[in-house]
Amino acid sequence: MIKVQRTFIIAVFCLGTVACASAPEIDPRPKLLISAEKYLELGVENYKQNNFSKAQAHFDRALFLYRNTDNPTGIISSCLNIAKTKLSSGQVNSARNYAQQAKIVIEREQVNGFDNHITLIESSIAIEDNQIDEARQILESLLNKTSSNASIKTAALQNRTRIAFIENSGIESWVKQYAEALNKPGQNTQLNRARLLRFKAALNPDTAKEKLSGALSLYRETAHSPGIAATLTEWASHDNTNGDYPAATNKLLRALFIRTNLQDRKKIQKILQQLSTNYSQLGQTSKSERANYWQKKLDNEIFEDWDAIRFEFENYPG
Q1: Which of 183, 262, 204 is nearest to 230 (CA)?
Q2: What is the pLDDT of residues 55-65, one digit of tens each?
Q3: I want to staple 272 with a disulfide (CB 3.0 to 4.6 A). Which of 112, 164, 295, 305 is the partner?
Q4: DSSP SS3 for 19
Q5: Hey, what's the torsion of the CAs at 196, 201, 202, 208, to 10 degrees?
């Protein structure tokens, strides 16, 4: 996530044998700007905790305050963070609109330093919207840059590897490049390692169970709900391929519970579609029909009855 951040240091001075702590520095900036930055920070913190609705509320407030001071950098940061939050909850069109608003301000005010972030968000939007050619073209310039920082490059390689799987082209090469990127300082994080294991699981079905189990453990350790849901869904697909519909259905229901809490519309619809198929395979016609019913109901973009879906498909502690 992108945020405006300043760090203030409280100095400690020693005079003889007496240690005295100075008073905190007084921030000379207007309170409106301080408040805006605080809301942006709160949004980032809630996003990291996968609390997208609260993150959205904080980013919205930050954007309101930055607009009231006509602060270009704050407006851009807020818009990009909102775009990423919208994308994380499956609101692709809204994410695209906020990313576009950020670009308009960048171009109008000639603000530097956001190009790579814009590129990554736009590529993710294109992938989620199934605009694969567009996503590949967007990433090309970023991947060819030698000046990109390691985190940006790793994120770009992750998106490019996703495209390789979608197109079923050059998969091994892109997985290898992504794996090599994790050898750079600061990139061998638990989340990046978990994503690599998921890529490797999709690359080699024979070792998929082992890799997905490893990915799930890493995501659980970091309490990364989107990663847990994604891993369960991919593992369910592996189970379905092997004809183990009960195991697959169990994993899909667990993933559905998480996705409804994240309010990720598109991914919920995909899970419900697969559940409908699985229930048919298991001879549970009424459940199949209900999964299909909720899948179609989610076509309505103003749908908010997430609790109803959770209640209908509750399987705890199954």
Answers
A1: 262
A2: 999 999 999 99
A3: 295
A4: strand
A5: -170
